[in-house]
Amino acid sequence: MKISFLGGADTVTGSRHLVELGGQHILLDCGLFQGFKVLRERNWAAFPVPVKALDAVVLSHAHLDHSGYLPSLVKQGYTGPVYASVATRDLCEVLLLDSAKLQEEDARRANKYGYSKHAKALALYTVADAKRAIAKITPIPPGREVRVGSVRISLTPIGHLLGASAVTLRAGAESLVFSGDVGRDDDVLMPPPQHVAQADVLLVESTYGNRNHPPNDADARLGQIIRDTVGRGGRVLLPAFAVGRAQALLHSLQDLRAAGQIPQDMPVFLDSPMAIQATALYQRHRRLMRITSREASGLSDGVTMVTTPQQSERLTRARYPCVIISASGMATGGRVLHHLKTMAPDPRNHIAFPGFQVAGTRGGKLVGGASEVKIHGEYVPVRAEVSQIEGFSGHADADGLMAWMRGFETAPRQTFVVHGEPEAADTLRLRIKDELMWKVQVPEHLSTHSA
Asked: Which of 75, 256, 328, 430 could be joined to 261 by an S-S link, Cβ 3.0–4.6 Å?
């Protein structure tokens, strides 16, 4: 068995792991690199191996750092199958189309206003590329296996996000398990991650490998932020991932309203067509969630859905107290940028990031205390209050990752720690070595290992 770490090996983004097993070449995840420019530039490099040599792609879940490169792979000539859970396939249709649309819009805007360093700014891929990629995704029903040559592929629900799964590859007596992103035992929406009994080789994520979630109540913190901001006549902006985080925030806001912790008539806006579509998918797949059917159907009660660009533009001009949920979650693109431009200079407002922010993104810079941020080619002063509410993360923390690994009945012969910043990955490596006494290492980007 050989594994080539083509992404997600020295960073928390760009998940791509090529496994050679049973004579097949299977790519686990096909994610976009996000964050620092040096990472984003990897998206534009030619794929490190001939795409036509790949026999299959398997997606652990739909977040763009795990699925967002798929249209580019197809654009480069990939013609094989793509496997994922049913819900992941549905969410990818929303996410990949939106990603392509944003890239096309960003390229047009850069060309119009001349702030690209290139003679002509181009999109990494187009909506047409995304549609071709989505058409290749074949759902794996719950409890089923699919075969690629001699390799059997199965999925295990892992929490974290609707449809998210750990991936198991088996060929003869050999097996490899890729955790994808492991969910929390106490996630707001998703059930706890299911355990996997056995793996010869394990690839485990390490997003929170060096820290645990704070004990404070995220709902209480969110309620306090809203009350304080409204009290001074300001608005609250919640940059949120359209899939997963936006729905968790809607659920929390409904709970805060019901408990009288925020005003019943507080205007709440969901300004993200993708988040609106994703919320409908969460409601359609409500049996996969831990909340009741009534709670799922009520996620958007009393929430104004902002669908058109004209409605969004009018909302950016609003000056009355309100709560705005908008994408993207790290403020890397989308409608949230227009809200940031108008809200960041006003000290009455509050920009609250509900979750982890990758270093190098606008979100990472803002929570790091930036006094100005570049948006659409111009620098915008930041005078609004900025905070981070980590309790909304859908990732297992360090203790949660260790608890999930303790569910294996026997030790893998080799464990690779992936999808984490260097400090987080190495901290988790040491815990695995010292507490579980497993053979473990952190691979380097583009390295290949026999296991």
From this structure: 256
Residues 58 and 339: their CA atoms lie apart, in Å, by: 36
Rounded CA-CA distance 418/392 in Å is 22
Are the C-beta atoms of residues 30 and 59 closer than 8 Å to each other? Answer: yes
pLDDT of residue 358: 78
Q: How far is residue 66 from each of residues 96, 183, 362, 377, measured CA to CA in Å?
A: 11, 15, 20, 28
| Distance (Å, whole) CA 291 – CA 298 | 11
How do strand 378-381 and strand 372-375 relate by DSSP bridges?
Answer: antiparallel
Statement: residue 116 has pLDDT above 70: no
> Are the beta carbons of 48 and 73 closer than 8 angstroms?
no
In 86-217, where does DSSP find H-type helix?
Answer: 86-113, 127-135
Amino acid identity for residue 165 in this structure? S
204 three-class SS: strand
The answer to whether the CB of 358 falls within 8 A of the CB of 12 is: yes
pTM of the model: 0.91
| Whole-number pLDDT of residue 68 | 97
Domains annotated for the chain, with CATH where assigned, are 2-211+394-450 (3.60.15.10), 218-392 (3.40.50.10890)
- Cβ contact 354:245 at 8 Å: yes
Q: Report how far residue 177's alpha carbon sits from residue 181's, in angstroms, rounded to the nearest whole number.
A: 12
